[in-house]
Amino acid sequence: MPDAPKPQLTAEQDAYLRERSDLMGAWLVLHAWGVIALAMALFVRWPNPLTFIVAMVLIGGRQLGLAILMHDAAHRALFKNTRLNDTLGAFLCGWPVGASLTLYRPYHLSHHRHTQQKDDPDLVLSAPFPITRQSFWRKMRRDILGITGVQRRLEFFRYEMGDDPSRWQRCKNLFHAEKYFLLTNLVLFGITAAAGVWWAYFVLWLMPLLTWYQVISRIRNIAEHAVVGDNDDRLRNTRTTLTHWGMRMVVAPYWVNYHLEHHLFVFTPCWKLPAAHRMLIAQGLGPHMELAKGYLQVLRKATAKNTDGPDGHSASQRKSPAMI
User: Fold this and answer.
1) Domains of the chain: which residue ranges?
2) Which of 56, 138, 174, 239 could form a disulfide with 290 if both were Cys (CB 3.0 to 4.6 A apart)?
3) How many CA atoms lie within 13 A of 163 on its CB side?
4) Which residues cross the membrane (predicted)?
5) CA 225 to chain centre
6) Tens of pLDDT along 239-292?
7) E-state strands within the chain
């Protein structure tokens, strides 16, 4: 077989994609928090089932957006200034949603070095697919009911507490690991309490984090690497999902759907990924790229397995107990 084509950038294109912006980084962080604040205000001002659903979807989407911006910070692409990048990427993006930039960076860079190979720490997320539709909908029900979110957090707590026999030491370990998550969430609770709506922290922050955030995180993870064309081809072992603005607003904020471009050009800020996509298409690489026309197309492919195993779960799930 002929060698797979390789993307080629001119010096000008490479320089453009590498250039970061403190102003744009600040705008993206402010935008995420601004949408969250407006969605909260919408329900507080007009409390009804419709505004509640809208608020849940918008807030959960921007919570994922904060995690995506922390991901950019992990690549030192959110801000041009390194101190701003690491500080704001951690405290304004990662910690409020329970993610640690310090822990995430080495883990994630290992994923980039070994994408879809045996040493890829994220392989456990894509390996179980395809699964059955029944299995997929079981996962969706757990996500939207908050079961997945609670289970993940409890597993994270157990990991952070460690195996020290001293209960006091284990609690100290947990506090040391979670202190910034607790601090940022205490600030959020304080803001809602000062505004006279203390309940909004639980209903309009924690609830979306435990429900809708889990749903769209699962869909995003499936779309990025599950059932791809060729695990050894850089143009085919990662997927870009082309979709309309409405779907990007609620499922794929901050251009996270351009995941193939991100893997090819890891130094590129998220807001330049559409430009990177156009460069690849202009080179005639479109037919060689793993592209999907929408998330429904991806989910159909990822749920194409016909039967479950005898325990009600697909065989691929039994091989990998990790949840997406």
Assistant:
1) 11-319
2) 239
3) 0
4) 23-44, 50-70, 180-213
5) 13
6) 999 999 989 989 999 999 999 999 999 999 999 999 999 999 999 999 999 999
7) 240-242, 291-293
How many whole angstroms separate alpha carbon 217 and alpha carbon 214?
5
- What does 15-58 look like in DSSP terms, one character per residue? HHHH---HHHHHHHHHHHHHHHHHHHHHHHHS-SHHHHHHHHHH
Residue 100 and residue 178 in contact, taking contact as beta carbons nearer than 8 Å: no
Residue 63: exposed, middle, or buried by beta-carbon count in 10 A (0-12, 13-18, 19+)? buried
The angle, 0 to 180 degrees and rounded to 10, between the axes of the packed helices 49-74 and 22-45 is: 160
What the block records as the tokens of 244 is 């309309």
Tokens of 275: 């430009």
CA distance 54 to 39: 7
Under a CB-based contact definition with an 8 Å cutoff, are residues 290 and 240 in contact? yes
Residue 112 structure tokens = 């980039």
**27 residue type, one letter:** W
Instruction: Return the structure tokens found at 150.
Output: 């609670």
Q: Is the bond preceding 253 in cis, omega lying within 30 degrees of 0? A: no
Q: Rounded CA gap, 291 and 238, in Å?
A: 9
Extract the tokens encoding 140.
Answer: 């969706």
- Helix/strand number for the chain, H first, E second: 17, 2
Indicate the SS3 state at residue 211: coil
296: helix, coil or strand? Answer: helix
Tokens of 128: 């179980």
Residue 22 CA, chain-centre distance (Å), reads 22
What is the per-residue pLDDT across 116-149, written as a single tens digit (0 to 9) for each? 999 999 999 899 999 999 999 999 999 999 999 8
Strand partners, 291: 240
Q: Of 259, 221, 266, whose CA–CA distance to 242 is shortest?
A: 259
The C-alpha torsion from 75 through 31 and 178 to 216, rounded to 10°, is: -80
